[in-house]
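Researcher: Last one for today. Full complex below.
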Amino acid sequence: MIISILLLEGPYNHEASDSAYHFTQAALAKGHTIRGVFFYDDGVYNATKLMDPPQDDRHISKRWSELGATGIDMVVCVAAAKRRGITNEVLAPNIRISGLGQLASMIHESDRIVTFGD
Amino acid sequence: MAEKGKKVMVTVRKAPHGSIYVQESIEVMFIFATYEMDLSVVFLDDGVLALQAGQDTKDLGIKGFMASLGALVDWEVTKVYVDRQSLKDRGIPEDAIIAIGKDDDSGAPIRPTVLDSAEVAAMMTEQHSIVSF
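Model: Here's the assembly. Have a good evening.
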């Protein structure tokens, strides 16, 4: 199955980001294709390279970057990003900023979209 | 307007103003309407509070989205529904919900179509994708 992920919450504050990440990994392990991950609302905060959590805890933006490095399309909504100060300057690697049209494309090209929120 | 493309439903289930979800879901609706998809929007649970008439966020210092909701039909978002039970549970009369547009000929207000929960459920099973706010 081809699956797209929509993430509406920022990192650490809510479990949504972790749930989205682990769901994505589980889907890949089962042989599904992840068409893309779209970050909207506070989800855009997942994409900052300035994240500096304690060493003994998971680094949420780094692991999204690692996922992006495998070729999965990691897209941050430009409108939500502008509102929240997430710019190209602070973007973690292998993640890009684009429009809500990319969400429409992801949905069109997927069998399912799964929303992770609060 | 285009009814081709996959059936996609946007659900709005959270109350407005206390969080941005309702407002940012409307931006999604506007963009989706410009793409080739058969878009439906359903307000249910606390989301129906967004449809109450007479809201004014001026004193909150928030821009608010009420004008955008009134322009949904202008933006080609025409399949807009609201769950009857959710309105009833919150004491909102069906005729007290806002207009999302105006009829071109008569000028009469167009309101979201009120549906029973079973109808909403049936509509959901027909969708290719559901995006939940």
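The radius of gyration of chain B is 14 Å. Chain B has four helices and seven strands.
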